[in-house]
Design brief:
The chain is of the alpha+beta class and 374 residues long. Among the domains are: 78 residues, no CATH class; 164 residues, Roll (Mannose-Binding Protein A, Chain A). 11% of the residues lie in helices and 16% in strands. The protein has a five-stranded mixed sheet with strand order 11-18-10-12-13. The longest helix is centred in the middle third of the chain and has 15 residues. The protein binds calcium ion (CA) (4 copies). One calcium ion binds next to loops. One calcium ion (CA) binds next to loops.
Length: 374
């Protein structure tokens, strides 16, 4: 006799154990549970399967239900429906089996980009390929040089990070004032955003103008202050911007002490025609100039002219010959001179011209000491 789809295997032992029990389902008192009868669809026993179990018929009043273990299943809802105790191991999904693919997806273990750090991952930022925060693509920790900008990095060009590029080896944007010259963008970077120190606030090399005066003076200049004023006046007439002082020393002060430049200035000293006299203070006072200071405030040549200085090549006072602090013009007082024809040390302390009578006339070297009138 063929078994129809409504049939189940029943455990004979269980059937006998519960054979006298009654179960209340849906308020209806059902009859004794067990197999009886022999007709298909009457919920009775159809045959013994040879292993201590019988083949039980499914009731005709409801659909058969497969269940785990020994749970009781009620089929049907109306009066006369039959409760069937059954054990089955056939097609029920196991709840204790091995982890499946769908299990992995829900826990995030091993999936880079799900925001959950799996066993094989150092991190998981939850973004594309795991990136996010301090986690780089591939679920590995961000590092400066990996081309991923994460954590406190401002940039990361990988192998393009450099001391001369847009992104420093420390993964910071190369900006003016960081002390790193961005080639092609910054002319200089002295580590600050201050001007008048050779490198401007915009990281442009500063230039300070130098000229020899068109005017001449006796030794009675009126002191250093009035000598500076002569430079400022001539610069203003020539429409040269900035602040100017005379390259002149008295018994107390010298260019080295009063210009406010010194070794900290790395910009250029240029003639008003653009020729470079020196690159920075260091070159200015090393005894040799790039070109002699032989051009006046208007750009006119002033070759072979005597210049009051009382200043040695190093920028300090040269001697006591300063026309009594630049107040005397008698022939008995002496003043040191340099010479505009010279690019060597004689430009400021000419052995042939020094200690001239203060009644003579000579010129002044005027130096711009600030970019603006601040
Ligand atoms: Ca993950
Ligand atoms: Ca990085
Ligand atoms: Ca920089
Ligand atoms: Ca600066």
């Amino acid at each position: 006799m063929p078994i129809n789809m409504g049939c189940f295997f029943c455990d004979l032992t269980n059937i006998f154990r519960s054979g006298t029990a009654t179960l209340a389902v849906g308020g209806a008192l059902l009859g004794a549970v067990g197999c009886s009868g022999t007709d298909c669809g009457d919920a009775g026993v159809l045959a013994d399967d040879g292993h201590g179990r019988v083949i039980c018929d499914a009731p005709t009043t409801g659909e058969g239900t497969e269940t785990d273990g020994t749970s009781t299943t009620t089929s049907g809802t109306g009066p006369g429906s039959t409760s069937v105790m059954s054990t089955t191991t056939t097609s029920t999904t196991s709840t204790t089996g091995e982890m499946t693919d769908s299990d992995s997806m829900t826990t995030g273990d091993g999936v880079c980009g799900d925001g959950v750090v799996g066993e094989e991952e150092a991190c998981d930022g939850g973004g594309v390929d795991g990136e996010g925060g301090d986690c780089a693509p591939g679920c590995v920790l961000n590092d400066c040089g990996d081309e991923y900008v994460g954590g406190d990095e401002e940039c990361d060009l990988g192998e393009g990070n450099s001391d001369v590029g847009a992104c420093t080896p420390g993964c910071k944007n190369n900006v003016c004032g960081d002390g790193i010259v961005h080639e092609g963008v910054e002319e200089c970077d002295d580590g600050n955003v201050d001007g008048d120190d050779g490198c401007s606030a915009a990281c442009v090399v500063e230039e300070l103008r130098v000229f020899v005066t068109s005017a001449t003076f006796t030794g009675a200049l009126g002191g250093l202050v009035e000598a500076d004023n002569q430079c400022a006046k001539l610069a203003m007439i020539a429409k040269l911007p900035g602040v100017y002082m005379a390259w002149l020393s008295d018994g107390m002060m010298s260019p080295a002490t009063r210009f406010g430049l010194g070794e900290g200035y790395s910009g250029r000293f240029v003639l008003v025609n653009g020729e470079v006299v020196a690159e920075g203070w260091g070159e200015l006072v090393d005894g040799t100039l790039g070109v002699a200071i032989n051009v006046n405030e208007e750009g006119m040549g002033m070759v072979n002219k005597a210049v009051w200085t009382n200043t040695a090549a190093g920028g300090k006072a040269g001697s006591g010959a300063h026309c009594q602090d630049w107040s005397a013009e008698d022939s008995g007082s002496k003043g040191w001179q340099g010479h505009s024809a010279n690019g060597d040390g004689a430009w400021t302390a000419d052995p042939q011209a020094e200690a001239q009578n203060c009644s003579n006339t000579a010129r002044l070297y005027c130096f711009q000491v600030k970019q603006t009138m601040r």
